Amino acid sequence: MKKINIEKKxxxxxxxxxxxxxxxxxxxxxxxxxxxxxxxxGKTTILVRTINDLKERIKVGxxxxxxxxxxxxxxxxxxxxxxxxxxxxxxxxxxxxxxxAALKQLPMSDLDLILIExxxxxxxxxxxxxxxxxxxxxxxxxxxDDKPAKYPAIFAKSKALLINKIDLLEGGHVEFDMERAxxxxxxxxxxxxxxPLSAKTGAGMSDWCDWLIRSVKKNRT
Amino acid sequence: xxxxxxxxxxxxxxxxxxxxxKATPLxxxxxxxxxxxxxxxxxxxxxxxxxxxxxxxxxxxxxxxxPIRARCTDCGCEFEVEFSDPAxxxxxxxxxxxxxxxxxxxxxxxxxxx
Lengths: 221, 114
Fold this sequence. Notes:
The complex is a heterodimer of chains A (221) and B (114).
Chain A: E1 2-9, H1 12-28, E2 31-37, H2 43-54, E3 60-66, H3 71-77, E4 83-87, H4 96-105, E5 113-117, E6 134-140, H5 147-150, H6 152-157, E7 160-164, H7 178-188, E8 193-196, H8 205-220
Parallel strand pairs in A: 2-5, 2-6, 3-4, 3-5, 6-7, 7-8
Helix pairs in contact in A: 1-4
Chain B: H1 3-21, E1 25-32, H2 40-51, E2 60-65, E3 69-72, E4 78-80, E5 96-98, E6 105-111
Parallel strand pairs in B: 1-2
Antiparallel strand pairs in B: 1-6, 3-4, 3-5
Helix pairs in contact in B: 1-2
């Protein structure tokens, strides 16, 4: 028997395409964020509200990832923002090749910010670099305050955490210890920005939108 | 479920190397970090399914999980992070910086020699 030392990254094919996307985004000076969450956390509702709230200030383009249907891309297009739908046909995450192709379908010169809505899944998408400038993890209060402790990888890797559906906390419909969720996320990631918000009522949206504007400006310089 | 894509990439790498070595692969050693983990059982199942009918059929996978380390921002000591209770073992304070996680790599392939 002979042993061959190989030391090769297993997902290096994906990383090669991710690097192409990094170069493309840097040339274009566009900020691109990859939004990751469980299904039903409200990513698309957050996107629709964010696009509308930012309409007068910056132009947003969206890449939608779902296993099937173009329901989400249609919701985005209804706001007037350009959107490209990717159907993964069963795959649990988006890959860098898919993002490379989708970026070329967006009217890049008209845009300031590209938001990717990954397939609803708190685990697999965190293992696939897309060439984005940063990850944003979305957690809705109905999922429970223990998620940062239970799914540490995505919270450790994200630039920002959106805690959505805070309107459900009023009236005690949902038990969610905001301080526990925040401190568990910060234990793993000291610099993570945390925005509790409700995409339904609009509460907390302005802090998140201001952070996006600051991030877009920072990325240009 | 991303293990299926990991299995496919592994098979591509092993088969390329098998052609180069002109030898039959027997086993492969893989390692991963804590923030890019694979589920051993799922990966073995996916690997078996994708390998069927190829030169990788029957190849045994040895999978090593490497712990993630952190540096305490208070006392500066480095330690393995326990996710159930992430804190510095020396000063028990939860303020630390995660060190880079081990990547998902194939370390070694063993081939049959006649």
